[in-house]
Design goal:
5 strands; alpha+beta; 138 residues; Heat Shock Protein 90; 5-stranded antiparallel sheet; single chain
Length: 138
């Protein structure tokens, strides 16, 4: 069963890891996702989207404070879907949103990519931060 009460499916593999909240850890997140989802057809998309959420955690939340960090949860239903959740120190009130950056801007496209490539995505506040997730279905 999934770890999420709002979604009843049979999850065949679940992986969780905590990462320090530093920029260099985004590369570690990418490698972690690639390792755990190596046989998932959309592994490239899952890796990219997870790195975008991890980057947001490090750049826009208290997850980057000394001693803080963020968690990555991967739920994989073989041959069907993957759901990745990034649990960071984000605000209870400030939800992430898809920005409309200027055409020549170097930043602000992370959630645009998530919105474009994921089957679904969302974010909700918890008592310990914010969980932002995406789903990719085959």
């Amino acid at each position: 069963m999934s770890l999420h009460a709002d979604r009843i499916t049979y999850t065949e593999s679940v992986h969780h890891r905590w990462f320090p909240g530093t920029v260099d850890q985004v590369a570690q997140v990418r490698a972690y996702v690639r390792d755990k989802l190596s046989e998932f057809p959309a592994v490239d998309d899952a890796e990219l989207l997870t790195s975008e959420l991890a980057t947001n955690a490090v750049q826009h939340t208290p997850s980057n404070l000394p001693g803080a960090g963020f968690g990555v949860l991967i739920e994989h239903e073989y041959g069907k879907s993957v759901r990745v959740t990034v649990h960071d120190g984000g605000s209870y009130f400030d939800a992430p949103y898809v920005a409309q950056p200027e055409p020549d801007s170097e930043h602000g496209r992370g959630l645009f990519l998530v919105d474009a490539l994921a089957t679904s995505w969302g974010s909700h506040a918890t008592l310990s931060g914010r969980k932002t997730w995406f789903c990719i279905e085959n």
